[in-house]
Every structure is written in C-alpha cells, then in structure tokens.
C-alpha cells in the first residue's frame, strides 16, 4: 500500500500555507514530519483528515496491485496535539462506546481492561470522568482508540509532548510495534524523538514536502542537515 498526495495546496486568505504538496508515503514506515512553527503541519493533517477543504490537489491509496482508490474515513486515524475526548463519559464508557460502534471493523479484540493496561491507565482512573483526566491521560485515550481501530494511515500531531518520559517511551514502543501494515506520519518539534522513532524524516518547508536523505551521515551530520534546511526559510 502507498498513500499518494498529488499537488495539494491550501491558502488562508492571502497566505499560501501548502503550496504544491506531492509525496508518496510507503506502508510499514514511520515518517517524522518536521517544520518550523506555522509551517503548516497541522493544516496538512487537517486537509488529509478532511477537516479542512484543500484548495487544489488530491490524495489516494494505491494498493499492492497498483489499484487506486479514494481514502475512506476509516482509513485515517488522527491523534491531535490537543486531545478531544467526550468529557462527560468515563474512560471505560468511552472505550466501550468506541468498541461497540466499530464492532464490524475492529479485528482482534481485547478486553477493555487489557486495553487500559496497554497504555498504563491505572485501575482507579478507569471509571473516572474524562473531564478529570490529565492532558497526558486524554492523549493516551486518543492514542488508544487509534490503536484499537488500526487505521491504514495514522496521523499523529505532536502526540507525545504532554506524556511523561516513561509513557512517552512506552508509546514509542507501541508505535513501532504497530507500524507494519500501515503508514504512520508523526509531527514533532523534538528532533531526537523524530530521529529515534522515524524511518524517514520529511520536512515541510516553503509549503512543500521533501525527504531529508540520510545516506552515509552520522546522527550529528543528519541533525545539522535538517537544521540547515529548516533555517533556509529565514532567508525568504
Ligand atoms: N483557520 C485558519 N485561518 C487562518 N489561518 C490559519 C488557520 N489555520 C492555520 N492558519 C495559519 O496557517 C499557518 C500554518 O499553521 P499550522 O497550524 O498548520 O502550522 P504548524 O506547522 O502546525 O505549526 P506549529 O508547529 O506551530 O504547531 C500559520 O500561519 C497559521 O496562522
């Protein structure tokens, strides 16, 4: 499977944020999306999740036999940097509701407590209202429903920044264990996290996407190359 974006553009009034994005993402890889503040990472995710209407361009899934098809809503999982969960439900009610409404599409099911264990939400927190969860716990719940749904394309907008070091490490392991059979696109400002977790580093720079080639570079040289490419924007 490939996820192909062709000539995607998006402006807000006169500001052209995404100029001409064409890129092919491949199955089984985690892509680290890096860009300066305001580069358009969230805008790109919002367009791909169809929360925002793009001005031009298209995207599709290409299967292993070369057939192209539209991206359906269930193909995409989106974890927002600011988690949105139904605050009036308890963690357990939310999970149960999510599993119930997706019963037909969710393959291997675990018990609800097993899922909570999976993201280290303590037994005493499972029946609390989500409004009383911390930011990091809400983030874990969002991550968890995407783990359960197993979408073909997983978009993660800075999901680990609010998590404590132990949970962030666990989430990294989880994302690694989930990466086969899907495309994971992960935006972050933490370069070391991107380098540790991601198979490819993609820059959103000047409104376009480009891969940073790693060939023969050690970690420091690779970091310097990324920084240099991102700094170029200052000269615009
Ligand atoms: N709804 C909107 N209306 C007008 N301008 C917007 C809107 N959403 C985003 N923008 C502008 O588009 C640009 C890209 O914003 P976006 O949030 O996508 O960047 P980002 O790369 O995710 O930034 P950060 O790393 O700081 O989170 C910014 O200049 C922002 O002000």
TrEMBL record:
It holds the Pfam family ABC_tran. Keywords: ATP-binding, Nucleotide-binding, Transport. PANTHER family: ABC TRANSPORTER ATP-BINDING PROTEIN ALBC-RELATED. Residues 3-231 form the ABC transporter domain. PROSITE patterns: ABC_TRANSPORTER_1, ABC_TRANSPORTER_2. This is ABC transporter ATP-binding protein. One of its GO terms (molecular function) is ATP hydrolysis activity. InterPro entries: AAA+_ATPase, ABC_transporter-like_ATP-bd, ABC_transporter-like_CS, ABC_Transporter_VariousFunc, P-loop_NTPase.
